[in-house]
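A protein record pairs a chain with a discrete description of its three-dimensional fold. The shape at a given residue is found from the number at the same position. Here is what such a record looks like in full:
>
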Amino acid sequence: AAADLLEPYRARLGEIPDAPDAYAQVLRAYTGALGRLGTFSYELALEAVKAAERAGDGPAVARGLANLAVQTLQRGNQLVGTMLLEQTVVFAREVHNLPIEGHALATLSATRYGEGLVQSLDDARNAVEVTARAGNLDAASLARVALAGVQWAVGEWDQLGAPDQWDLHADDESQAHAVA
């Protein structure tokens, strides 16, 4: 319902060249609503990055790059998606967006899991460290689950601990219990 309410504003503001801030804010709300519905498109993710860039909103550019990277990975473009995630980490760090930096690191860890466990483990450890500083439960939970998966794969079973002590988001609990 929120996406339906925002669509006319998104369409109208997209046609007004002197309203980059308003357009970027409406587009962010619109893509957020669509993302929760599972109908977020690659094209819309790219438009959100461009709008945030025009508005000079660095944290929103980082968030948009992360969304675009995930969309690219979901379409089976592993190399380009991984490169986008790497740049998301760099850019998020530059604009001090710790939740997005940590989320991108955790996603990188999962992306690299099949390619090299050493790099995957390093990404996951960095994700846990960054998200702890960010204080964002969603990003921290994703990072902890990524780290647990890689630690299990490399045989660091003693370092896993009990999932009940990890302060996880409800969506991540089942994955953590499966690993532990």
